[in-house]
Amino acid sequence: MTVLDANFLIDYLAGDDATKEFYAALNVPDGQRQAVLYRELAVSLYREGVLSFGKARELAGLSRREFHQLPGERQIERHYTSEDLEDDLEYARG
User: What are the DSSP calls for 14-55, one per residue?
Assistant: First the structure.
């Protein structure tokens, strides 16, 4: 799943008549619903191995440090791929 696909999914959930009721029922302040959905989708896709750490972090819209805390808090096994290594090396180079 790409970030574009995720954007479509979130927009669909927020705007589709059949799901507006569920979107509105989220126990989250109005202004935070979309961010929470992105974060939860990103964590779930990372946990299942569908997204790398870097792509999940990007989808969640969080910094490396912020996203790094989420798997630990939820006891999610960390995946470290060659893409993650490339992201880390690029980050280290500045």
Answer: HH-HHHHHHHHHSSS-GGGHHHHHHHHHHHHHHHTTSS-HHH
pLDDT tens track for 33-55: 888 888 888 998 888 888 888 88
- Contact at 8 Å (CB) between 67 and 56? yes
Mean pLDDT, residues 61-79 taken together = 84
The whole model's pTM is what? 0.63
Measured between its terminal Cα atoms, the distance across the chain in Å is 27
Measured torsion, CA atoms of residues 22, 25, 26, 28, in degrees rounded to the nearest 10: 150
Count: domains in the chain: 1
